[in-house]
Specification:
By secondary structure, this protein is α/β, with parallel strands linked by helices. It contains seven helices and seven strands. Helix content is 38%, strand content 17%.
Length: 205
């Protein structure tokens, strides 16, 4: 209930302020039980995702947030759970798999932290580990925004990364190739422009 109330407030106030445009609703599965991943440039990113996706998203968030006054309590009420970013947090990974099997939407920023640099090396493999273990698809989302009021923000929901085609592969190969596809799709417009650039010097700014 708390999530839904806050979501309505955000849609009324934040959506028009950031002129949010949402594309690709047809790429969302008809049933839940999947991972939602996006690029991560701003603290606004999870807010924008919550506005775009009708059903509640349970976010994996850095452990430190839960110690912040007021915000920590609010994040807990929204259903988010902590993850230790240094090393593999097995408890969080197991909890993530459990949520997916309960047909929840799991929200993860695969770069692990906010970043301004578009670089494959920023990608963490934890989300791929979860997808392979839970045998669930990943819905990649690209957020394109200046994060400044009254300038357009685009939330592009791209086609699913289908886990089935990676399951026959050896674990390491599956992790690398699936991460490659996820990186491409959370920066799809950037990567498509880069590919179509004649000299290969497309500037992302």
């Amino acid at each position: 209930m708390f999530y839904k109330i806050l979501q309505i407030i955000l849609q009324i106030i934040i959506k028009p302020i950031f002129r949010i445009r949402i594309n690709g609703y047809e790429n969302l599965p008809k049933e839940n039980g999947y991972i939602l991943c996006s690029n991560h440039k701003s603290n606004w990113d999870p807010v924008f995702l919550a506005i775009a996706i009708k059903d509640p998203i349970i976010f994996m968030a850095k452990k430190q947030i839960f110690d912040w006054p007021i915000i920590g309590s609010a994040v807990k009420k929204l259903g988010a759970f902590p993850v230790q970013r240094d090393g593999r947090d097995m408890a969080s990974l197991k909890h993530s798999i459990k949520l997916i099997k309960e047909n929840k939407i799991l929200g993860i920023m695969p770069e692990g932290t906010r970043t301004k640099n578009i670089d494959r090396e920023n990608m963490k493999e934890g989300v791929i580990y979860i997808a392979l273990k839970a045998k669930c698809n990943i819905i990649p989302v690209e957020i394109i925004s200046t994060f400044k009021p009254f300038r357009k923000t685009y939330i592009n929901i791209n086609k699913a990364i289908e886990v089935e085609k990676y399951l026959p592969l050896k674990s390491k190969e599956a992790m690398v190739k699936m991460t490659d596809e996820l990186f491409y799709k959370i920066y799809q417009s950037h990567n498509e422009k880069l590919e179509s650039s004649k000299d290969g010097n497309y500037n992302s700014k």
